[in-house]
């Protein structure tokens, strides 16, 4: 069965979008639009998912076939956008308000589907995402812990420090001192 809309796992950044676009073109398809997690093909070049899955897999991506998997990946992409919203909005929305605003579903439904598919709650995934962003900011050495905590909407530097240790097993000062290369790619978080 051929399709014009592909849902793809592990697309986490603009370079992933470009990589999938190029992969599709090299395979002889004409992508109409490629965004995080979704590739839309020209109506004249529909793809057979069985043929395309190995090509995507070889490049580190995975074709999503079930609706729950597709929704989970869309939630992950939206949570990455939410991090930017947290950082830049004057009065940021709550996670649940942000997600329900983006999806035509209740937060309860989104949470159940996400937990069942990702084997982790939305909240825990968001914490992992935030900690990876914190690691990035720490590695630059430009901001104090309190400045990072403010940007990431933690109640205090101490709250961030406690959560950092819980997730990574290291204190912030140990991480800075050792400059551990233990940052994870976003597609490996869950």
Structure description:
There is one protein chain. The chain is an alpha+beta fold and about 190 residues long. The protein has nine helices and four strands, in the order βαββαβααααααα. It has a four-stranded antiparallel sheet with strand order 2-3-1-4, sandwiched between helices. The two termini are about 30 Å apart. The mean pLDDT is about 90.
Number of helices: 9
Please summarize the sheet with the most strands: 4 strands, antiparallel
Measured by DSSP, the beta-strand proportion falls in 5-15%
Radius of gyration: 18 Å
Overall 3D geometry?
globular
Mean pLDDT: 89
Distance N terminus to C terminus?
Answer: 30 Å
- Given helix and strand content, the structural type is alpha+beta
Order of helices and strands: EHEEHEHHHHHHH
**How many β-strand stretches?**
4
Helix content: 55-70%
């Amino acid at each position: 069965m051929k399709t014009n809309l592909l849902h793809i796992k592990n697309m986490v950044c603009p370079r992933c979008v470009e990589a999938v676009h190029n992969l599709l073109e090299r395979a002889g398809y004409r992508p109409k639009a490629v965004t995080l997690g979704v590739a839309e093909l020209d109506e004249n070049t529909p793809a057979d998912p069985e043929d395309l899955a190995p090509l995507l897999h070889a490049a580190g991506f995975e074709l999503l076939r079930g609706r729950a998997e597709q929704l989970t990946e869309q939630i992950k992409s939206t949570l990455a956008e939410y991090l930017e919203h947290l950082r830049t909005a004057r009065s940021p929305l709550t996670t649940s308000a942000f997600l329900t605003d983006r999806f035509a579903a209740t937060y309860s439904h989104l949470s159940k589907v996400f937990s069942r598919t990702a084997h982790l709650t939305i909240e825990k995934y968001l914490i992992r995402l935030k900690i990876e962003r914190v690691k990035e900011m720490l590695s630059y050495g430009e901001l104090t812990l309190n400045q990072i905590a403010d940007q990431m909407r933690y109640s205090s530097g101490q709250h961030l420090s406690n959560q950092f240790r819980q997730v990574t097993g290291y204190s912030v000062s140990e991480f800075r001192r050792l400059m551990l290369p233990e940052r994870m790619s976003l597609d490996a978080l869950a």
